[in-house]
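Question (not urgent): is this output format expected?
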Amino acid sequence: MPLDLTRSFLTIILPGIVAVSPWMLLLVAENPSAGDLYQRWAIPFQVVAFSFAVTIGAIIECFGSELECRWDRQVASGDVPLGASNWVDSDWHTYLHQKFGDGEPVVYRYLSRKVTTFYFEVGMAFAVPIALVGTAALIFTQSALHWCAPAASLVAALGSLLLFRRFAKDTHRVLCVTRSRYCSTINKRGE
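Got this back:
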């Protein structure tokens, strides 16, 4: 999870809005009762739509991180430059130990961002299902939409819980491995 708004906008919010917008328009266009809901409660509808877009954007970002890891493994298993073994992993950890500007190792900010990502994912594992159950209740009580919409929201709630749990577990592993490697390097150097 990026710490600044520009990065958050470009990596989470914008992709989420792009992915969700056509579906929201389709929902309103194809279901007159959804349009009525929007007319009666425009601001809450917009808040829910924005929250949904951010959630989808966060999921997209997590899939992007997973794709990056896969590509790292593919590159590492390919041609090795200059005879290095496991060069992607080695270069990554060498980079994390670099000190720039204020003399702080890159690993400090990287771990800080990863911890933020981890807590975001854990928080979303609870927040998204709660929001989707609330959305299901809202649709069920305030709309003439068929019972399938609330049921789909409940299924999505369970799916999002499992998905964000998986993302958080993967991020936790990256945190553990990175901290372990950094600490073992520091101990070897006697710093």
